[in-house]
Amino acid sequence: MEEKSTSKNRVVVNILGSNYTIITDNDEEQLKKVSGFVDELIRQVKKNNPYMNPYTAAVLSSLNLCEELFELKDEVEDLRKDKEEYEILTDYKEKLMSALEEAEANEAKRLSMQYKYEKLEIENEELKDLLEEYKEKFTSMRSEIELNRRSISELQNKLLENQIELVKARKNILDYTS
C-alpha cells in the first residue's frame, strides 16, 4: 500500500481587498488562479451594483458559479448517457454481426435463417443511422466544449490584462503620492 505525502502549504490570497490564509496540499499557483477568478467574479457583481455589500456579492457570485457547475454537470451526465447508449448499440451491433456470421456458417439452416438475416440487416441499418445521429451530437458537443474553453481562455486573458492594469494604476498612485 502506497502512502501519500501530505505536505500542507500556507497560501495567502486576496479576495475583494481582504487577505485569507489557506492551508492546502494543492498547488499554490492553482489556488492563486482560483482565488483570482473568485475575486474577479465578486468584483463583477459589485461593479454591476456598487452599493451591494461584499457578503451579498460573494453569495451571488457563488450562486452564479454553482449554476454554471450544475449546467456543466448536466452536460457531462448527458455525454455519459450518450456514451453508454453508444456502447450498448455497439455491443448490440457486434452481437448482430456474430449472429449473421453464425447463420452463414450453418448451411443446413441457411434457408430458415434467411428471413432473420434480412430482419437483422434492417435493424443494423437503423442502428447505423442512430449511430450517425449520436456521432453528430457528440461532434456538436465537442465543438461547444471547445468554444467554452476558448471563452474561458479569453476571460482568463482579460482577467490578466485587468490585473496588469490594476498594478499599473497602483504604481501610478504610488508615484503620484510620492
List keywords for this structure.
mainly alpha; single chain; 178 residues; elongated; two-stranded antiparallel sheet
- Output the structural class: mainly alpha
Using the CA coordinates, give the radius of gyration.
Answer: 28 Å
End-to-end gap: 60 Å
Give the helix proportion (percent range). over 70%
Largest sheet: 2 strands, antiparallel
- Provide the low-confidence segments as ranges: none
Q: DSSP helix count? A: 3
E-strand count: 2
- Strand sequence of the main sheet, in spatial order? 1-2
SSE run = EEHHH
pLDDT averaged residue by residue? 87
Beta-strand content: 5-15%
Shape: elongated
Model description:
With 178 residues, the chain is mainly alpha-helical. The chain is built from three helices and two strands. The protein has helices spanning 28-48, 54-105, 110-177, and strands at residues 9-15, 18-24. A two-stranded antiparallel ribbon has the order 1-2. The mean pLDDT is 87.
Layout of SSEs?
Blueprint: E1 9-15, E2 18-24, H1 28-48, H2 54-105, H3 110-177
Antiparallel strand pairs: 1-2
Helix pairs in contact: 1-2, 2-3
Quick structural overview:
This protein is mostly helical and 178 residues long.
